[in-house]
Amino acid sequence: MHTSSLLLLLLLLVFAGAAHAAPPVGEKLTPEYYSQTCPRAERIIAEVVQSKQMANPTTAAGVLRVFFHDCFVSGCDASVLVASTSFEKSEQNAEINHSLPGDAFDAVVRAKLALELECPGVVSCADILALAARVLVTLTGGPRYPVPLGRKDSLSSSPTAPDKELPHSNFTVDKLIKMFGHKGFSVQELVALSGGHTLGFSHCKEFADRIYDFRGKPGSVDPTMNPVLTKGLQAACKEYLKDPTIAAFNDVMTPGKFDNMYFINLERGLGLLGTDQELWTDARTKPFVKLYASNATAFFDDFSRAIEKLSLYGVKTGADGEVRRRCDAYNHGPMPK
Ligand code: HEM
Ligand SMILES: *[C@@H]1O[C@H](CO)[C@@H](O)[C@H](O)[C@H]1NC(C)=O
Ligand SMILES: *[C@@H]1O[C@H](CO)[C@@H](O)[C@H](O)[C@H]1NC(C)=O
Ligand SMILES: CC(=O)N[C@H]1CO[C@H](CO)[C@@H](O)[C@@H]1O
C-alpha cells in the first residue's frame, strides 16, 4: 500500500521531470528534414533570395536582423512574420519592429510562394527564414554554417514581447551579457553574434546621443568614438529629427561584406552603436573582439557555431506549431478586417 503509492509518486515525479527536461514532442531537427517531402526546398529558397539580394542589396542585412529578432522573441518560430490585424496585434506592433525592413519580409514571402507551388503545405516559414539568413550570410562573403530543419511556425505572436526580449542600443555590456546569458548564450557567443553588425545600417536615433548629447549633455560627444567618425555622423544625421529615415552603415569600412571588419573597426573607435563600441571598452568582451579582429577564421568558426545554436533556440516541433500556408497569418484563417 505504502510502497505502491510511493512508487506511483516516484513515477509521477519521473514523468513530470521528463516532461520538463525533454524537448517538445516531435522530431529532432536535421538538415535532411525535407529531403523526401521537398528535396528542392533549399535550392528554391536560395534562388529567390539571391535574386532579391541582387535587386536590393539591403536584403541580406534585413533578413539576418529579422532572423535574430524571430529567434530571440519566443524562439525561431516565424512569430515575427505574423501581421497585425485589427482583431489581433502581433510582434510587428512592438516599437522595436518599426524599423524592421520590408525587403526582408518580402524575401521570405516570395520564397514561400515559390515553395507552395513546388510542395504545398510542407516547408515552414521558420525554416525558410533560417535558410534565407544562411544563404545571404554566405552570399555576402560569410561562412556557410549548418541549418538543421524541421521548425514549426508559431500559433501566437505577442506585441509586447519584442520590447522585453530584444537588446537595445542603449544597453550596457552588463545588460547585454545578462540578456544573452539568460537565453543560454556565453559572453563569447554574444561577441561573435554581434559580428552580424558587419552588415546593414542603423538609424540616427540609435546613436544620436553619442554624437550630439552624450550622457544627456547637449553638445558633448562620446569620447570612445573616433573623432573623424563623429564629425561625419554629425553632418550625415543633422536633419534626422525631421527625417527619421536617415541612417549610417554599421560597418563603416565594408558595409555590404560579411567579414571581420566590424571588430577591426571597434579597435579604432569606429563602432556605430554604443553597444558595439562598448564591447571593446569592457574587459569581459574585449579579448574576443581582439581575437576576431586579428583572426577572421576564428570569427567565422565561432559565428557559425553561435548562429547555428541561435537557430535552434526555442524551436517548436510537432503539435506545438503548424506549417503556415502564408507566413504572415495563422492557418486558423485571416481574422475579418
Ligand atoms: C548585441 C545586441 C544587439 C543590439 C543592441 C542590436 C541593435 C541593433 C540596432 C539598434 C540596429 C539598427 C536598427 C535600425 O536603426 O533600423 C541593428 C541593426 C542590425 N542588427 Fe543588431 N543588435 C544586436 C545584435 C544583433 C545580432 C545578434 C544580429 C545577428 C546576428 C544583429 C543583426 C543586425 C543587422 C544585420 C542589422 C542591420 C539591419 C539592416 O540594415 O536592415 N544584431 N541592431
Ligand atoms: C533605451 O531605449 C529604449 C527604446 O528606445 C527606451 O525605451 C529606454 O527608456 C532607454 N533606456 C535608457 C536607460 O535610456
Ligand atoms: C585563427 O583561428 C583558427 C580557428 O580557431 C585557428 O585554427 C588558427 O590557428 C588561428 N590563426 C592564428 C594565426 O592564430
Ligand atoms: C506596427 C508596425 O509598424 N509594423 C511594421 C513592422 O514591420 C513591417 C515590415 O516593415 C511593416 O510592414 C509593419 O507595418
SSE blueprint and pairings:
Layout: H1 2-21, H2 41-55, H3 59-72, H4 102-118, H5 125-139, H6 161-165, H7 173-182, H8 187-194, E1 201-203, H9 208-211, H10 227-236, E2 247-249, H11 261-267, H12 274-281, H13 286-294, H14 296-311
Antiparallel strand pairs: 1-2
The structure holds protoporphyrin IX containing FE and 2-acetamido-2-deoxy-beta-D-glucopyranose (NAG) (3 copies).
Describe the structure.
Helix 3 (59-72) crosses helix 5 (125-139). The relative contact order is 0.16. The protein is built from 14 helices and two strands. The chain folds into two domains: 41-165 and 312-320, Peroxidase, domain 1, CATH 1.10.520; 173-310, Peroxidase, domain 2. Strands 1-2 form a two-stranded antiparallel ribbon. The chain has 337 residues and is an all-alpha fold. The chain has helices spanning 2-21, 41-55, 59-72, 102-118, 125-139, 161-165, 173-182, 187-194, 208-211, 227-236, 261-267, 274-281, 286-294, 296-311, and strands spanning 201-203, 247-249. One 2-acetamido-2-deoxy-beta-D-glucopyranose is lined by residues 168, 170. One 2-acetamido-2-deoxy-beta-D-glucopyranose binds next to helix 14.
In short:
The chain has 337 residues and is an all-alpha fold. The chain is 47% helix and 2% strand.
CATH overall fold name of the largest domain: Peroxidase, domain 2
| Fraction in helix | 40-55%
Structural class: mainly alpha
- Given the structure, what is the number of helices? 14
What is the class of the largest domain in the CATH system? Mainly Alpha
Radius of gyration, whole Å = 22 Å
Distance between the terminal alpha carbons, to the nearest Å?
61 Å
Query: Any idea what the CATH superfamily of the largest domain is called?
Result: Peroxidase, domain 2
Query: Which ligands accompany this protein?
Result: protoporphyrin IX containing FE, 2-acetamido-2-deoxy-beta-D-glucopyranose
- Uncertain runs are 1-26
Q: Report the principal-axis shape.
A: globular
Can you count the beta strands? 2
The proportion of strand residues reads: under 5%
* Spatial arrangement of strands, main beta sheet: 1-2
CATH architecture of the largest domain: Orthogonal Bundle
